[in-house]
Design a protein that fits this description.
The complex is a heterodimer of chains A (382) and B (179). Chain A is mostly helical and 382 residues long. Chain A has 14 helices and 2 strands. Chain A has a two-stranded antiparallel sheet. The N terminus of chain A is likely disordered. Chain B has 7 helices and no strands. The longest helix of chain B has 30 residues. At the A-B interface, helix 5 and helix 6 of A face helix 2 and helix 3 of B.
């Protein structure tokens, strides 16, 4: 009951949003998601080169730093080809639909304690729903191209995204059960020293060790309920499939179906599809960091007089608070992206039957068990 | 401002549904249905039913619409002359065969009267306290777990039965293939 009663006071603080923060969040996320493709592609090439014992791009600029701009210039100059037998309207519209649906997900992401596009109370649920728009865009691209490979790729992609939504949803539900909120900003506040309810070690009240003042990693969700660490692994695997990343890149398996649903695209439209793939990676990395890894809170705890958590995270509302918040969240998200890339260049592509086996017979049952455990854990927390 | 947004989304909904009826290309009507579903979701938001709006997008766009598109794609058998010869250079298309209007009109009119009389008489508990904007998540959660627990559970059992039935049907097809 305590939780229910304390909520209105908190909601008041969170829901009073000045319009300027919304107007500020939009361009920031637009710049972030399109700017990330620059960093992401360079990172991907260098990491893959490192893993395969090569050098990667070295010619354009120092250490190949300008390689991506050269690539962009090339894409800009290319002709925007629409195949004669393609359904012109659907073909031209599809990349915009895909990018718009991925970008719409950023609307509910908190970047700092004060900066969030929309403080809607259904944030997490909205994110799950917006992924399905992506599916429609991919089907549009696959069907519109009028190419067997495109259609096959789109079908595979949709089957994969729809299937992996189930383990993804189950793990997200575990966090929602622990946090008792669908609002991503509220979930963020709970995982740090600025929380509105006491945190106990491993979330168990009976232990009697109050870690509210310690903050840092001790108040992250993966330590408030240690089983959420397993949930994060499942979440990570499921998001790899949602983003069509290797080892789940069957929709664009080069050796089988050329490039899947983006086979027929060229020039800037291809760039837009590429951009949405990287924006999706960033989106799920953000989501994982917010739900499991303490969001914009610092990982360093207060240890006695050494107030590491206080020093590395400013209080909400101050400039320092916003700067540190953005720094920690971006660091965590980028670390998750590095792991995504590491996985991509380490593991071979799964077969379709292995993909479905993993989803339905491994991840989903574990997800259901974790959901049960989280429910019990929540009872220990109050 | 709010009125303008309302009219814009209402126009989107109506225009989308009208286009679904007018176009003969089944894939186009599926994508126009998407527009009208987004419009309805936005109207739900303006009626401060935020959870319902998201559920609408999730179930209808993510579930039903994708199922419809898949159904249309998988059950369509192109005529042989469209896959070879000069016809092959044209875009993919699936046209509706059904152009009758009397029965659909009757069904639509009947449903409209039934829903209208139902909704005009129904008594919603949320109507009494009109706050400026309040999220409906908490209210819906509490109501589902208290007052509406039996319908909620029955819906759960129904879905489980459907799931088991679907598994049984698809596994039967497998068994006959193996034999």
């Amino acid at each position: 009951m305590i939780i229910v009663e304390t909520r209105p006071a908190l909601s008041l603080r969170i829901y009073i949003h000045l319009p300027f923060t919304i107007l500020l969040a939009l361009p920031i996320f637009l710049a972030l998601s399109s700017g990330f493709v620059v960093v992401g592609v360079y990172l991907e090439r260098k990491i893959s080169a490192f893993i395969q014992d090569r050098l990667g791009p070295m010619e354009v600029g120092k250490w190949g730093l300008l390689q991506l701009f050269a690539d962009l210039l090339k894409l800009l100059q290319k002709e925007d080809i629409v195949p004669a037998a393609a359904d012109r309207k659907l073909f031209l519209l599809a990349p915009s639909v895909i990018f718009a649906s991925v970008f719409a997900g950023f609307a509910v992401m908190p970047l700092t304690p004060d900066l969030q596009g929309s403080a809607t109370a259904v944030g997490v649920f909205y994110l799950m729903a917006i992924v399905s728009f992506d599916v429609v865009g991919i089907l549009m691209a696959g069907w519109g191209s009028n190419n067997k490979y495109s259609l096959l790729g789109a079908m595979r992609s949709v089957a994969q995204i729809v299937s992996y939504e189930i383990p993804l949803g189950l793990t997200i539900l575990c966090v929602v059960m622990i946090c008792q909120s669908l609002n991503l900003q509220e979930i963020s506040f709970q995982q740090g020293i600025y929380t509105y309810e006491p945190n106990y070690l491993f979330g168990i009240r009976a232990l009697g060790i109050d870690v509210t003042d310690w903050g840092g990693i001790f108040s992250w969700n993966i330590l408030r309920n240690p089983f959420l660490l397993i949930a994060y692994v499942i979440f990570f695997i499921a998001t790899l499939a949602e983003a069509n990343r290797a080892p789940f890149d069957l929709p664009e398996g080069e050796s089988e179906i050329v490039a899947g649903f983006n086979t027929e695209y060229s020039g800037m439209r291809f760039a837009l599809l590429f951009l949405s793939e990287y924006a999706m990676m960033l989106l799920v990395a953000f989501l994982g960091a917010i739900l499991f890894l303490g969001s914009w809170n610092t990982p360093l705890p207060n240890i006695g007089p050494v107030r590491l958590a206080d020093w590395t995270s400013g209080s909400p509302g101050t400039v320092w608070g916003n700067l540190t918040g953005a720094f920690w969240l971006l660091t965590k998200a980028l670390a998750a992206i590095m792991v995504q890339m590491w996985v991509r260049w380490t593991l071979p592509r799964l077969r379709v039957d292995q993909l479905m086996f993993l989803c339905w017979k491994v991840l989903t049952p574990i997800g259901i068990v974790l959901l049960l455990i989280s429910g019990v854990w929540r009872l220990l927390m109050i | 401002m709010l009125n303008l947004i309302f009219y814009a989304f209402a126009a989107l909904t109506l225009g989308g549904s009208l286009a679904v009826l007018i176009t003969r290309n089944v894939m186009y009507s599926a994508f126009f249905l998407l527009l009208s579903l987004i419009g309805v979701a936005a109207l739900f938001v303006l009626a401060s039913a935020d959870l319902l709006a998201v559920a609408q997008v999730m179930i209808y766009v993510g579930g039903v619409l994708v199922l419809v598109i898949f159904g249309v794609m998988l059950t369509h058998k192109p005529k042989p002359e469209t896959t070879t010869g000069p016809q092959a250079a044209r875009p993919n298309y699936i046209l509706t065969q059904h152009r009758a209007w009397l029965w659909p009109l009757l069904v639509a009119a009947g449903l409209f009267t039934a829903f209208y009389s139902l909704i005009s008489r129904i008594h919603f508990s949320l109507f009494e306290h009109r706050a400026p904007f309040q999220t409906s998540v908490d209210t819906i959660g509490k109501q589902l777990m208290t007052e509406y627990i039996i319908p909620f559970e029955i819906a759960g059992i129904l879905l489980l039965a459907a799931l088991v039935g679907a598994t049984y049907l698809s596994s039967q097809g497998d068994r006959t293939n193996n034999q």
